C-alpha cells in the first residue's frame, strides 16, 4: 500500500495543510483528522505561517470565502504553526516540505502546487469524491 511507504516505521507523519485543503473542510464537511489517521496513521498536523497570513487576508475581504476563512482560522488554532519567511504560500510549503529527514506530506487540493510537489518526489494528500483523502506519491 502506498501509505506504508510514507510511514516508513515512523511514529508520526508531519502533515502540512495548504489553504485549499483547509477551506475544503467548510465546502465538503469531511473529518480531516479521521481521514489523515486512516490514510497515514499517527499524524502531526502543521500549518505554515504563510497559510495563516493568507487566511487572515481572505477573512477581511467581502466574499463568500471570508466567513469560511474566519472559521478556518479558529479551527487551525489547535494545530502547530511552522514559521516561513516566504510571502508566497506555495513557495513556503514547497520549502518546508523539501527539508530532508522531516517526513513531510502536504495536504492540498491546489493542482499547480500538487504538480510541483510531485515533480520534486514529495508525497501529497488530496481530496477525492468530496470526502475521502487520497495519498498521491
Task: Write up what this structure looks like.
The protein is α/β, with parallel strands linked by helices. It has a single domain (2-136), classed as Rossmann fold (3-Layer(aba) Sandwich), CATH 3.40.50.1010. Helices cover 49% and strands 20% of the residues. The chain contains seven helices and six strands. Strand 4 (104-107), helix 7 (111-119) and strand 5 (124-128) form a beta-alpha-beta unit. The longest helix has 13 residues, at 64-76. Residues 1-5 have low confidence and may be disordered.
What does the main sheet amount to?
6 strands, mixed
What overall geometry do the principal axes of the alpha carbons give? Answer: globular
Whole-number mean pLDDT: 87
What count of domains describes the coordinates? Answer: 1
CATH H-level homologous superfamily name: 5'-nuclease
What percent of residues adopt helix (DSSP H or I)? 40-55%
Task: Provide a brief overview of the structure.
The chain has one domain (2-136): Rossmann fold, CATH 3.40.50. The chain contains 7 helices and 6 strands. It has helices spanning 2-7, 19-28, 32-40, 49-59, 64-76, 89-97, 111-119; strands at residues 13-17, 43-48, 80-82, 104-107, 124-128, 132-136.
Features:
137 residues, alpha/beta, Rossmann fold, 7 helices, disordered N terminus
List strands and helices in order, with pairings.
Blueprint: H1 2-7, E1 13-17, H2 19-28, H3 32-40, E2 43-48, H4 49-59, H5 64-76, E3 80-82, H6 89-97, E4 104-107, H7 111-119, E5 124-128, E6 132-136
Parallel strand pairs: 1-2, 1-4, 2-3, 4-5
Antiparallel strand pairs: 5-6
Helix pairs in contact: 2-5, 4-5
Amino acid at each position: 500500500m502506498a501509505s506504508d511507504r510514507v510511514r516508513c516505521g515512523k511514529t508520526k507523519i508531519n502533515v502540512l495543510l495548504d489553504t485549499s485543503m483547509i477551506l475544503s473542510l467548510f465546502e465538503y464537511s469531511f473529518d480531516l483528522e479521521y481521514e489523515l489517521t486512516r490514510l497515514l496513521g499517527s499524524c502531526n498536523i502543521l500549518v505554515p505561517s504563510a497559510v495563516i497570513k493568507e487566511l487572515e487576508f481572505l477573512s477581511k475581504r467581502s466574499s463568500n470565502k471570508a466567513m469560511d476563512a474566519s472559521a478556518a482560522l479558529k479551527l487551525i488554532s489547535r494545530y502547530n504553526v511552522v514559521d516561513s519567511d516566504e510571502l508566497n504560500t506555495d513557495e513556503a510549503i514547497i520549502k518546508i516540505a523539501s527539508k530532508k529527514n522531516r517526513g513531510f506530506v502536504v495536504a492540498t487540493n491546489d493542482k499547480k502546487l500538487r504538480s510541483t510537489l510531485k515533480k520534486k518526489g514529495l508525497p501529497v494528500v488530496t481530496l477525492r469524491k468530496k470526502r475521502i483523502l487520497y495519498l498521491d506519491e
